[in-house]
Predict the 3D structure of the following.
Amino acid sequence: MTRSTLAFCTAALALAAQAALAQNTPDGRWHGGLSVSGALASGNSSSRTLAANADASRATTEDKLSLYGLANYGRNKTNGVDTTTADLLRLGGRYDFNLGPQWFSFGGVEGETDKAGGVRDRYNFNGGLGYHLLKDDITSWDVFSGVGYTATHLTDGSNANGAQVLLGEESSHKASETTTLKQRFVYYPGGSDLGNRATFDASLATTISGAWTLNAGLASRYASRVPVGTKKTDNLLTVGFGYKF
């Protein structure tokens, strides 16, 4: 397993749990959750990983505010050589305002650092419009687009700043009283400096006891501009546990 793959495994596991925690109930109250996971191994090689994320949202019939945070850390030691396999911290938020039954506007901000993945730091501010294609008690499906400003500093010393468009869609389907399926795809076309980025996340969450859930997640990340020696695409299928409130 490569360094970037192991780092992505840890992040995807936390994100799979996070997808099940966010609540869209328009009752004006905060809903969300916290998830912590880790692993420790010893023997011919030793490793330790830790992942934690927090997610909260407050929705009304007029608007919604979502906040999230994600942290991942991992180290591996083989033949006396220590290697950082995960070093990720991501914080962000998004505000949605309903313009009518179907249309909504949004504004968001996100900051992250992922040195093991080649990103020293990245900041993104964006805003745009969205449309509810479907919205009922069982299924919701939105499409959205907008524009923002991205500033990226990679670990090889190169920088990229500028405007960047985003195009995306996301849906949630309640398969049963205890099972929910969610997916989200976002594409960020950029110029020669910023490059193109795309993200896809899907999760299947099933309540197993009280507020505890069992989650299966599929995550994929693509970036056309990465430091030399870092792969452009990471894909992972994961299973994990979460707790919601």
About this structure: The chain has one domain: 3-243. The radius of gyration is 18 Å.
